[in-house]
Specification:
Substrate Binding Domain Of Dnak, Chain:A, Domain 2, binds FE(4)-NI(1)-S(5) cluster, 51% helix, alpha/beta, 655 residues, globular, 27 helices, Rossmann fold
């Protein structure tokens, strides 16, 4: 792990950290400084799966360990370092898959209520997408009403979770060659819940004790996330809330308003956020806010929920994962409304130091000390109204110590697969052709997905921004989601003007011609499924091989921290993508298992894991991989020609 020198590269974050220190408010940054990570757990060498342990099998200090010595280094039950590291890694995949998929399930439930007419506040916003989904899922369209079609779509999706055999429906969205490979290896998921349950079973004490076999099921569960739970979440959300299109908005703590009631929606599932976006505009509630002395109601988003409502409504983003407590430190937040995932318990302690009300809304995620206001999916509008009213009522309690950093950055987001298709090909000839052509001719060197969290063990946003800058400088078009996308946006990389300032000449030219930023914001973490779909669309458009593993493309999560990131990484790898993580690597306690992930996987899937905490070095590894793929495709020469053009152009510029 790289020792971090500064806490954040973001000025607004640093300003609020100073305020927190002055006011003696303890945040994640202080807790991280105080709590040293456990080195044995950190490398995946601690097994607490039974009560004979926890057993620790740290990496041998002695590099010349003999096989006999190695065999003696086991847990009480005899589990080897390999088994222990693989179990721990696989359990992260199970938890990550469960999180994304339980989110997907909730969305399907709301969609079903809508289709049955049991909730009047949601509707079908993207009819085209609904019909496409119906076709994909074998649901009859005919002359039926949209609601009838939607109900059948909901029922098919619902079954995907509990299916016991067969194959997940969206597996068919992958390139044919990839599907065949998965079938050959026996990793096609049957049902989402089944794969998670089986993985938990197989990693229980005394079950699967062959790391390669454990990882086959790990892969199956991860695929059930990327091509299952996450993809269902994205597709159904698009149907019900609209498929994102390019939207201009703003990001950073400076989007909070001193003279308004500030409501932050934080978490992941967009149903409540959608309603809050509508209700925060309600004239009666605004009047109510005015009666309390405020100028209005300012809704802003935090973490992945922020991505969801910003892409669909232009609602501004307050910040990413490591900024959640700092938003409260401004002293200007009346309510922090949370649902599930990436919500720090530390929020409640910070909220206690101010007037902020921390409101939990989901029965699956309560926080001791917080106020619980259950979100009722049958009556979403009423739930949203009640929450906003509670926030307004809290406005008069605001203290004197308000300071909002005067820092915010514009961004354009909303690059769904459909939007990219349209932007490149136009409404009637929507296609990825221009993208493929420009990859083939070398103006665009390749594609990179830079995604994932922030991590308090490394400089906030630092690795994301350094990596992305290195990539776009080298003509790699970046697709981004989650906290990574927010880091890029804050650094000014999500506006078309960034192309000229930060990109290599080939990528700059494309961005300027099409009018897009060099870093395309594709949404929240579940929307990594959009990256899979985009990669498949590139394959299908032709000229760049016949599988995702043939593409000059790579993935990365340079500041990862959550188990969801491991699930995402594993489905990227199993989909054929070279994937490099930063910060720390959780299997280093077993050289053999790490080798399995870093080497064997490439033979199996054409994609593999890698670990490189230095973000610029990691970007270089990604570029090396991209160049390797260009060479295999026989398009490396065209790239050389472009480089030659570049040199000529520089010479011309110098004259
Ligand atoms: Ni995804 Fe990481 Fe959380 Fe979103 Fe941010 S921390 S794995 S990016 S908010 S899920």
């Amino acid at each position: 792990m790289v020792e971090k020198e500064i806490k954040s590269i973001d000025a607004a974050t640093n300003e609020m950290l100073e305020k927190a220190a002055q006011e003696k408010v303890r945040t994640v940054f202080d807790r991280a400084a105080q709590m040293k990570p456990c080195p044995i757990g950190g490398e995946g060498s601690c097994c607490s799966n039974c009560a004979m342990g926890p057993c620790r099998v740290p990496l041998a200090k002695n590099k010349t360990e003999t096989p006999e010595e190695h065999a003696l280094r086991t847990g009480v039950c005899g589990a080897t370092a390999e088994t222990i590291a693989a179990r721990n890694f696989a359990r992260k995949i199970a938890a990550g898959t469960a999180s994304h998929s339980d989110h997907g399930r909730r969305v399907v439930e709301a969609f079903k209520l809508m289709a049955e007419g049991k909730t009047k506040d949601f509707a079908i916003k993207d009819e085209q997408k609904l019909l496409k989904l119906a076709l994909d899922l074998g649901v009859e369209i005919g002359n039926r009403k949209n609601e009838e079609i939607a109900l059948d779509v909901a029922k098919v999706c619902e079954k995907e979770f509990g299916k016991q055999d067969g194959e997940l429906a969206f597996i068919k969205n992958a390139p044919v060659k990839r599907q065949e490979l998965w079938r050959k290896l026996g990793v096609v998921p049957r049902g989402i819940d089944r794969e998670v349950v089986e993985l938990m079973h197989r990693t229980h004490m005394g079950v699967d004790q062959d790391y390669k076999n454990i990882m086959l099921q790990g892969t199956r569960a991860a695929l059930a996330d990327g091509w299952g739970g996450s993809m269902i979440a994205t597709e159904i959300q698009d149907c019900m809330f609209g498929t994102p299109t390019p939207t201009l908005s703003e990001i950073n703590l400076g989007v909070l308003k001193e003279d308004m009631v500030n409501v932050i929606i934080h978490g992941h599932e967009p149903a409540l956020a959608e309603m809050l976006a509508v209700e925060s505009q309600d004239p009666e509630l605004i009047k109510y806010a005015e009666s309390k002395g405020a100028k209005g109601i300012n809704l802003a988003g935090m973490c992945c929920t922020a991505n969801e409502i910003m892409m669909r409504h232009g609602v501004p983003i307050v910040g990413n994962y490591l900024q959640q407590e700092l938003a409260i430190v401004t002293g200007a937040v009346e309510a922090m409304v949370v649902d599930v995932q990436c919500i720090m318990q530390g929020l409640q302690e910070v909220a206690r130091c101010f007037h902020t009300k921390l409101i939990t809304t989901d029965e699956r995620a309560k926080i001791t000390g917080a106020t619980h206001m259950q979100f009722d999916e049958h009556n979403p509008r009423e739930s949203a109204k009640a929450i906003i009213k509670a926030a307004v009522d809290n406005y008069p309690n605001r203290g004197k110590n308000v300071r909002i950093p005067n820092i915010k950055t514009p961004l354009i987001a909303g690059f769904s697969h459909e939007t990219i298709n349209y932007l490149l090909g136009g409404l009637f000839r929507a296609s990825y052709r221009p993208l493929n052509d420009n990859i083939i001719n070398g103006r665009i060197r390749g594609l990179a997905g830079v995604v994932g969290c922030n991590n308090a063990r490394t400089t906030h946003d630092g690795a994301h921004v350094a990596m992305i800058k290195e990539l776009i400088k080298n003509d790699v078009l970046v697709l981004s989601t989650g906290c990574g996308a927010m880091a890029a946006a804050k650094a000014g990389l999500m506006v078309p003007e960034a192309a000229k300032q930060f990109c290599g000449p080939g990528l700059a030219e494309i961005c300027e011609t099409v009018g897009i930023p060099p870093v395309l914001h594709m949404g929240a973490c579940v929307d990594n499924s959009r990256i899979l779909i985009a990669a498949t669309a590139v394959v299908k458009d032709g000229g760049l091989g016949d599988d995702i593993s043939d593409l000059p493309a790579a993935g990365a999560a340079p500041e990862w921290m959550s188990e969801k990131a491991i699930a995402i990484g594993q489905y990227f790898v199993a989909s054929g993508m070279y994937t490099v993580f930063g910060t720390t690597w959780p299997t280093l306690g077993s050289g053999e298992f790490t080798n399995h992930l870093f080497k064997d996987m490439e033979e199996m899937y054409g994609g593999k894991w890698d670990f490189q905490p230095d973000p610029v070095q990691a970007a270089k590894l990604m570029i090396e991989h991209i160049d390797k793929k260009r060479k295999a495709l026989g398009i490396d020469k065209s790239r050389e020609r472009v480089l030659y053009d570049m040199a000529m152009r520089r010479e011309l510029d110098a004259v």
